[in-house]
Amino acid sequence: MRSVKEINExxxxxxxxxxxxxxxxxxxxxxxxxxCPELWTLEHPDVxxxxxxxxxxxxxxxxxxxxxGGNYYKLSEYGCDDVEEVNRRxxxxxxxxxxxxxxxxxxxxxxxxxxKFIKPFGELDFDEAVEMFKxxxxxxxDGGVDMFAVETQIDIQETRAWVIAIKxxxxxxxxxxxxxxxxxxxxxxxxxxxALITLQSLGVHAFGxxxxxxxxxxxxxxxRLKPIAHIPLVAKPNxxxxxxxxxxxxxxxxxTEFGTYAAQFAEAGVNFMGGCCGTSPDHIKELAxxxxxxxxxxxxxxxxxxxSSARExxxxxxxxxxxxxxxxxxxxGKKKLQAELKEGIFTTVQTFAREQKSTGxxxxxxxxxxxxxxxxxxxxxxxxxxxxxxxxxxSIDTTNPEAxxxxxxxxxxxxxxxxxxxxxxxxxxxxxxxxxxxxxFILLPxxxxxxxxxxxxRITIINDIYAKAEKYGFKKCDILIDGxxxxxxxxxxxxxxTLKTIKWAAQEGFxxxxxxxxxxxxxxxxxxxxxxxxxxxxQAGLTHVIANPMEEVLTNIKLASDLLSGTDPDGINYIxxxxxxxxxxxxxxxxxxxxxxxxxxxxxxxxxxxxxxxxKAALDSGFKPADILENMMIPAIVHVGDLYEKKEYFLPxxxxxxxxxxxxxxxxxxxxxxxxxxxxxxxxxxxxxxxIHDIGKNIVILMLRNYxxxxxxxxxDVKASKIVEAAEREKPDIIALSALMTTxxxxxxxxxxxxxLSAIKAAFMxxxxxxxxDWAQSIGAHYSANGVEAVKKAQELIK
Amino acid sequence: MDIPFEIPYTRILTxxxxxxxxxxxxxxxxxxxxxxxxxxxxxxALKGTYIIQDFKPAEHGIELESGDIxxxxxxxxxxxxxxxxxxxxxxxxxxxxxxxxxxxSTNLERAVIFDATASEITDWGxxxxxxYAATMLKHQSRVVSRKRFxxxxxxxxxSNQRIFYSLLHLEQFxxxxxxxxxxxxxxxxxxxxxxx
Lengths: 799, 196
Hints:
The complex is a heterodimer. By secondary structure, chain A is of the alpha/beta class. In chain A, 47% of the residues lie in helices and 14% in strands. Chain A folds into 4 domains: 4-291, TIM Barrel, CATH 3.20.20; 305-582, Alpha-Beta Barrel (TIM Barrel); 590-671, Methyltransferase, Methionine Synthase (B12-binding Domains), Chain A, domain 1 (Orthogonal Bundle), CATH 1.10.1240; 682-797, 3-Layer(aba) Sandwich (Rossmann fold). In chain A, helix 19 runs parallel beside helix 20 (494-508) and helix 28 (695-706) crosses helix 33. The radius of gyration of chain A is 34 Å and the shape is globular. In chain B, strand 5 and strand 6 (183-184) form a beta hairpin. By secondary structure, chain B is of the alpha+beta class. Chain B has 6 helices and 7 strands. Chain B is elongated. Chain B has a domain at 47-108 and 122-195: NADH Oxidase (3-Layer(aba) Sandwich), CATH 3.40.109.
């Protein structure tokens, strides 16, 4: 086995050449379709040796064991449970070829996706996956691999599980590559930056991409990763995108063209390069030849603070705007949230997550500490729930070290741990756990029961904790110093000490954070003190703030502070934010609206909240109910219908207006006797038998009723006989039928025929996603495409 | 498996009839609709499954390795370009449908937005499965066609859903099949495509 140090020394000297495709080579050398590649190769060691030797002769410095699908889950699909032995034997053959190469050739234990999704994205338990993955790792280690190549990953959580499994078993070099779509995200939505941040903080030794695209598409990914990579980068592109020719899968890029990309990848900073699907020893030979005179570019990215979710990364450098860590997901003082968490309901948690993101949070703090619930269980549930739903990284906020460790293990990104203080034994438990899972942490400068009053006392504690953290590999950029915002109403000198601590942290290269609202505890109108202190702290060099981004004054002051402190280059965030706010329309001045205009505008704009009051105001002004209906409401809804037909309004606007009218009508209805409101006609409505889709029908009914039609709704999945029975009883002017599927619209003529047999005189009107005018005519019915047309058609038919 | 999704706002808005060039919606109103879309997405638990079955030609269709015969013009066309069929299903789950049912009687506008969101995200789920299978199969030099089709279109009879329902074990996803071969929860879709 080569140590990480030895491999890094090799990387300092040259760009290491990986091998090319294995699957394609196995097929070319006789492996039939449909067999288990690992088991077939096991029976054909001569083929395996020939492929390895071909790649070594072509210039590969690293060969991959043919164990892409050698994990427990994949092998069990072929009825094989001997995971360790299969991997050991295959790796042994690779080892032999490398040892006989006559030059330094490394053996990478190749690991592909397991084919299952791990919690929180799938059903497979994280710890179970880690244990099962260890079986393959054990076999590969026994076979003598130098390093591991975890490749073609689309799921960051599975990649984490592999990395954790390897690190729990050995200190070997770990290279991971993920597969990115043309959208430059994995299929599961992870950006290259998020994947790099998560994995390099977790301790992988090289990261990059393989498969999915050719070199031209992969090059920009390497280019955008290099400025933030602290580890070597890897590229293993396909020979272009596959196509079918004469029944065979082909890759378009020849070896010569493939090799021409060497210089560009070297310039971009790649440190390992090889080929994936469609590449051959010829491709690798061209690549190795052209790469021979290229010098490696070591990682040059400066230190920065970075957090990541399963989808995106938040990178904070000197000069970045202050990041808001949304504080709302915390049951303290929130009765509704407390009640929900006790019941295992997470609706408010989801709402808080969504709202905080939309109002500017960069990170979401998650705290489940309250009496009467299992904090650990609840915290893990919230993390599992939010992970697929939000792209924001999470801050794990707990005083329970066990809960913190489990949350960090589960979280498929780089979390922020809130917090680590100098208290024993929490410090001794949390530092190694945060290091193992690659978390950033908030350093709380507290030791003992007393909160240090002065900045100098806090700095002493910070230095002491940092000295311990350094031993676990933490750098200053991995830590946010809590400035300890204390209540100004208790001690007016406290804010100054907090600001001194923040300033010192900035000068020393640490990030910093404050729990902003502490400053104003006990004061009235706290938001002003909070906002002013945020501005002052920003000036002192604050990088993060734990606060409620729903407080507009606070987010506005933050935007202004970022602008004035120069951390919002060209004021882009400030201008964009306030430009949008000023562009927001202001409601027309109500005082200027007459009662008629208020009713009409209420319906046209779909303002349900006010319509009852608006209609009552019109009544109070002396308008008669029939006047309001006929001369204000109906013209308004007709206008809305026109706007919809012109595509100026879309469906939600049409419905909002229709529902507003319906609500307004409830005020008038008791005042209108039948003589006041003439019914426009009676319509019997049903979705036909076998069809369970009825939302379109409901929209049409809403429109018809607003226009004064009496509508009898028979519901969905209604048999023809039941429709006919109702028609005989109700004697409607129109029978309206809806269907969404081609397979159910054939029930429409059935209804019409049965109705005719029963001598029912009603006209028929049909509609639905698959129904056309021609079809309607062919069955003797009238057609309407939507609610607006249905009203017009009904008015025509009932004259 | 759980399928991670990003909200396809444009597709949902288009489904609801929004046209950037003609719609007069104010930006704040559009944001409000997007907010409802996001709320709807919060009720969606997108899940999916797939199997790959080799097939041989059958009269006006294909015979799967399971022995099931699938007839119709679209399945028959698979004979020209594929040797296996990728059969898949995606569902947005029951919670969103319960919510839509509740909203139908209380707030139809929201119900329609929820409905469109669930439809598009379910469709997105099928696209994701195709891409996922393509990624997994690429290492075997196999190519998955991006053109998928579902029972109920043209002469590809809806009754085929019964065969696929059984092959995919959709009961494990709490999906039920009605007598008329519709899937419940409503926002559940079965589809197939070819693998070469």
